[in-house]
Design brief:
By secondary structure, the chain is of the alpha/beta class. The protein has 12 helices and 13 strands. The strands form 4 sheets. It has a 7-stranded parallel β-sheet with strand order 3-2-1-4-5-6-11, with helices on both faces. A two-stranded parallel sheet has the order 7-10. Bound molecules: nicotinamide-adenine-dinucleotide and thymidine-5'-diphosphate.
Length: 359
């Protein structure tokens, strides 16, 4: 398989690139990434020298560049046409989308449409596949009971989720209108190694290690359904090899947590870990660092995914329990301080001040 991965230098994309290169020697991957604040080539150090892997810096809004990659005429690549696209590239943070919705529409909606158009033109013959990596947030918010199924009406509440919905609808329209081989996956919240520390779990882990306050929005009772990033990768792998074009597949961990319970759990695991002799010394993290702050506008109350379709049709099952996955993730952050300390300076500090200091 010859795959164009977009956004492969971000959190999930980089985990996916490593996952595929390890599992399928011989598969070729071209990773196209703009390297925004969220893209980081440090995430891909492990595969830099792999001859099956090529990195190209560029924007999914650049139709000419995409065409040259798909046709195999781009000089940096293997010079073979690419048969598959997996589109991870996106602006992905809800809080940033509240500050600047336009950049979300540009990359998430328009960028996806540019990719679709380039692929439609390049792929005259059958045998191609375009996977749009979407989110459960397109379904909006749930009450205390029930689950999102693939039939749940789309009702996004944030500029981020609205832009992801726009992209999903483009993929759907290209399938219906042009018979384009698109498939949409909608996954719940991911966590794991290389998670950018503006999102809840890595923010809490790293702030606790720095002795900073642990910001919890509103009453902390909002619920998310957490899935380990490697389980998301294995689900996309199943869709890549067995998914049916024109279909939507929900992906989730059946693992609902209130935000405040996760924050408490992280504090407790960190306290336990930092007691171990030989572990690098950090400021002792405790629940006393928790600070409830002003809520996020339009904050979705609860997400919960029904992933029975992908389990039944494609035989996917997640491998991680949350207990094991979270402990391993915390250990990864303890062992990779340079990675996150490098990120949590410069541009990140400006964002942090803007989002947190006045709340
Ligand atoms: P991320 O923000 O960590 O990474 C996004 C990557 O896309 C970065 O490497 C960035 O440089 C790149 N990018 C941004 N704009 C680009 C452009 N115009 N052209 C090329 N590259 C560009 O995001 P993530 O958390 O890894 O999420 C990846 C995808 O999965 C997104 O589409 C997101 O909507 C979706 N998703 C994320 C989650 C989650 O919990 N993180 C859950 C479900 C779905
Ligand atoms: P986040 O990781 O931003 O993912 P999403 O908003 O896409 O679900 O946030 C997860 C939950 O944690 C969400 O309910 C918002 C909340 N949250 C906080 O309480 N404090 C924070 O500092 C952040 C970043 C998120």
């Amino acid at each position: 398989m010859k795959i164009l991965v977009t956004g492969g230098a971000g959190f999930i994309g980089s985990n996916f690139v490593r996952y595929i290169l390890k599992k399928y020697p011989g598969y070729k991957i071209v990773n196209l990434d703009k390297l925004t604040y969220a893209g980081n080539l440090e995430n891909l150090k492990e595969v830099e020298g792999n001859t099956d892997y090529t990195f190209v810096q560029g924007d999914i809004l650049d139709g000419k560049l995409i065409a040259s990659l798909l046709e195999g005429t781009h000089p940096a690549t293997c010079r073979e046409p690419l048969t598959t696209i997996i589109n991870f590239a996106a602006e992905s943070h809800v809080d940033r989308s509240i500050e600047d919705p336009a950049s979300f529409v540009k990359t998430n909606v328009l960028g996806t449409q540019v990719l679709l158009d380039a692929a439609r033109k390049a792929w005259a013959t059958p045998g191609h596949r375009f996977i749009q990596v979407s989110t459960d947030e397109v379904y909006g918010s749930l009450g205390p009971t029930g689950y999102f199924t693939e039939e749940t009406p789309l009702a996004p509440n944030s500029p981020y989720s609205a832009s992801k919905t726009g992209a999903d609808l483009m993929v759907r329209a290209y399938f219906e209108t042009f018979g384009f081989p698109g498939i949409i996956t909608r996954c719940s919240n991911n966590y794991g190694p290389y998670h950018f520390p503006e999102k809840l779990i890595p923010l809490i882990i790293t702030n606790a290690l720095e002795g900073k306050s642990l910001p919890v929005y509103g009453d902390g009772q909002n619920v998310r359904d957490w899935l380990h990033v490697e389980d998301h990768c294995s689900a996309i792998d199943a869709v890549l090899h067995k998914g049916k074009t024109g279909e939507v597949y929900n992906i989730g961990g059946n693992n609902e947590w209130k935000n405040i319970d996760i924050v408490n759990l992280i504090c407790d695991i960190l306290d336990e870990r930092l007691k171990v002799p030989g572990q690098p010394q950090g400021t002792a993290p405790t629940r006393s660092l928790i600070k409830f702050i002003k809520d996020r506008p339009g904050h979705d109350r609860r997400y919960a995914i029904d992933s029975s379709k992908i389990k039944k049709d494609l035989g996917w099952t997640p491998k991680y329990t949350f207990e094991q996955g979270l402990k391993e993730t915390i250990d990864w952050f303890l062992e990779n301080r340079e990675w996150w300390q490098g990120i949590k300076s410069g541009e990140y500090l400006k964002y942090y001040e803007k989002n947190y200091m006045s709340r």
